[in-house]
Amino acid sequence: MDTTSDRSRQWQWPQWILRAAAIYNLVWGTWVILFPHHLFDWTGVARLNHPGIWQAVGMIVGVYGIGYWIASSNVLRHWPIVLVGFLGKIFGPIGFLGAALRGELPWSWGATILTNDLIWWLPFAAILYGVFKIHSDPASRIPSVTRGSLEQAADAILPRPQSSNGKSIDSLSRDQPILLVFIRHAGCTFCRETLAVLATRLNEIRGLGLEPVVVHMSSLEEGERLLLSHGLHDTTHISDPGCVLYRHYQLERGTVSQLFGPAVWWKGFQAAILRGHGVGRLSGDGFQLGGAAIVDQGRTVQVFPAANATTSLPIASELRTTLQCAAPIPKAL
Fold this sequence. Notes:
Layout: H1 3-10, H2 13-34, H3 38-43, H4 51-73, H5 79-101, H6 110-135, H7 150-156, E1 162-163, H8 169-175, E2 178-182, H9 189-207, E3 211-216, H10 220-229, E4 236-239, H11 244-248, H12 256-260, H13 262-274, E5 291-296, E6 299-305, H14 316-325, E7 329-331
Parallel strand pairs: 2-3, 3-4
Antiparallel strand pairs: 1-4, 2-5, 5-6, 6-7
């Protein structure tokens, strides 16, 4: 089943942006082909001896218009066309700036750069950001007709969670209350910082009667190496590449501000550089936020969703208060 077509029909605003860009490119390209001297005359630049060169530029711009119109029909499938156009709209102004500084082109040509390139930066960047966010979501592989039941769809399509000791969350929580620690993708510096903090707080958390269980999006083998590198030798972990558990516990995917806000950048610099956690390759859904959850006797006691990408473990007082006061809610997976 073609899930990209379904989602493209539901994601309407990029279609209108790309159609507007297509019409603009076709009109501008046709104008340059039919009247190659107009722009030169208006800006006081000497006419070209060989206007066919400039007309070829108009042809290229017009062909991009056809590409944008095609991309508008299914941007999730034809996003490379948008990417190529976006790169052209970045490099074009760079080239103009160099030529203007050398005195080869008048600054008045900047009006063309404004309408051809600059005004499209934000909408094209937003389209590409949205495409990447949708394609990186494991749930994007679920056909829209099956979305009424995430569990049924996940059973059929998404990889199911696997624990390092073969036990389910329900089984683990029957032995003693557990603290599920949901980390972001393994390359994220905040993921690594969370594991480092967990290693230093193991005795404190276990002293509260909780057994930590790390949930990650990597394979069991990758997860094992990641935990061992942070000294978590005897900590159970669960591989959840389909983010089934993240969704079950209603942990959100981040917004732009939650993932890339100024505070996130600053804390990321502190974690990666000053505290030495570094960064790695993307392994999992880069938009998925982390969090934590207490599960006891197969029941979810409390969920602690992350406010943004930097959020680490709940503090001891939060855990202690939750254990004392919170009433159990939905059954765990």
